[in-house]
């Protein structure tokens, strides 16, 4: 009996940067499940119609991707299993015959627009922006618009992945469009939670934590849970809880794996002192750089210290 090919959801349609990220890690026989937005892609993992989703989480120009950060806190728990980075450059593409001077309106994903605003301002200062659900959705719509419907489309060009321009047979009006040529977006592969795997020595852990309300020093106390255990933070972002002003959750990446003692100890401290804590996965870090474990915080240090306590309790140590 052959096992069916796994289905992976992602922000579609085909040709998004998200699909480029998925291709880095998905098995060859993957069944693609392109979704119209990030929450739908994540819900397909929750309802078991997909085994994994690939979604953007952090953009080097725009920062955290709120659609992903907010969904990971809201629905049934999911965990990050891998991270991928995709260098981002755009092309300005249109239907055959469209010239730069014909472009009065451009559609793309808001993050893409944020990364190309300067270029557009310089080359098409009059062009207006039409929001798209992804970089490739307006590309596909432009390609599918027949001449009769063309008048109904309110844009003449899109900013998209060069792969999308190719896939939808659009003409490239301008290539290498980007205000920052080194822009990178970090994507994550997200799965349903299961038994946590083993550490590789070069891991990252993602979590969400909410501070106790209205308490002086609450943020400092939370950060100390990491610093006293030698756990280094690589990202921290605040997101409003949503129910009233002034209440925030923090989305945090730390170096290390939840199977490591010092990371576990930090989680235990947070669990004792914060009203909300969600573990969002321990996974190999992209750059494979081994995590530096400060003196006194290695697993061995914890084991030795615990056995000293056991000796005290048993009356073996004075
Ligand atoms: O629309 C796409 O192609 C996506 O993969 C989404 C996304 C994002 O959310 O940031 C990813 C990379 C680019 O920065 C622009 C858009």
From TrEMBL:
* A Pfam family of this chain: PDT
Q: Which InterPro entries match?
A: ACT-like_dom_sf (IPR045865), ACT_dom (IPR002912), Chor_mutase/pphenate_deHydtase (IPR008242), Preph_deHydtase (IPR001086), Preph_deHydtase_CS (IPR018528)
Q: Which residues form the ACT domain?
A: 207-284
Superkingdom, according to UniProt?
Answer: Bacteria
User: What CDD domains does its record include?
Assistant: ACT_CM-PDT, PBP2_Aa-PDT_like
Keyword Cell wall biogenesis/degradation included in the entry's annotation: no
* Enzyme Commission number(s): 4.2.1.51
Q: Could you list this entry's UniProt keywords, alphabetically sorted.
A: Amino-acid biosynthesis, Aromatic amino acid biosynthesis, Lyase, Phenylalanine biosynthesis
Residues of the Prephenate dehydratase domain:
7-192
**Which parts pass through the membrane?**
none
Q: SUPFAM superfamilies under this entry? A: ACT-like, Periplasmic binding protein-like II
Involved pathway(s): Amino-acid biosynthesis; L-phenylalanine biosynthesis; phenylpyruvate from prephenate: step 1/1
Catalyses: prephenate + H(+) = 3-phenylpyruvate + CO2 + H2O
Record's PANTHER family? PREPHENATE DEHYDRATASE P PROTEIN, PREPHENATE DEHYDRATASE-RELATED
Q: What is this protein called?
A: Prephenate dehydratase
Write down the species.
Actinomyces ruminis
């Amino acid at each position: 009996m052959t096992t069916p090919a796994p289905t992976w959801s992602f922000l579609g349609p085909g040709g998004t940067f998200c699909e480029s990220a998925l291709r880095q890690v998905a098995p060859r026989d993957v069944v693609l499940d392109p979704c119209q937005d990030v929450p739908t892609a994540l819900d397909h993992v929750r309802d078991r119609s997909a085994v994994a989703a690939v979604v953007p989480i952090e953009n080097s120009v725009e920062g955290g991707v709120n659609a992903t950060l907010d969904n990971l806190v809201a629905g049934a728990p999911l965990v990050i299993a891998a991270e991928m980075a995709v260098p981002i450059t755009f092309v300005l593409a249109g239907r055959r015959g469209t010239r730069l001077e014909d472009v009065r309106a451009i559609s793309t994903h808001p993050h893409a627009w944020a990364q190309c605003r300067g270029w557009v301002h310089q080359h098409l200062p009059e062009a207006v922006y039409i929001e798209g659900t992804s970089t490739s959705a307006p590309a596909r719509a432009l390609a599918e618009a027949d001449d009769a419907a063309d008048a109904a489309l309110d844009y003449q060009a899109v900013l998209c992945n060069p792969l999308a321009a190719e896939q939808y047979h659009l003409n490239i009006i301008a290539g290498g469009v980007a205000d920052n040529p080194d822009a990178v977006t970090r994507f994550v592969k997200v799965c349903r939670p299961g038994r946590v795997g083993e550490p590789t020595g070069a891991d990252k852990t993602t979590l969400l934590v909410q501070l106790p309300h209205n308490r002086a020093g609450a943020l400092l106390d939370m950060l100390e849970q990491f610093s006293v255990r030698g756990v280094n933070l690589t990202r921290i972002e605040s997101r409003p809880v949503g129910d009233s002003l002034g209440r925030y959750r923090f989305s945090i990446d730390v170096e290390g794996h939840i199977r490591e003692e010092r990371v576990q100890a930090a989680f235990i401290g947070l669990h004792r002192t914060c009203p909300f804590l969600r573990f969002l996965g321990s996974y190999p870090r992209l750059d494979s750089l081994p995590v530096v474990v400060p003196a006194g915080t290695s697993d061995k240090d914890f084991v030795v210290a615990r056995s000293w306590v056991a000796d005290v309790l048993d009356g073996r140590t004075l």
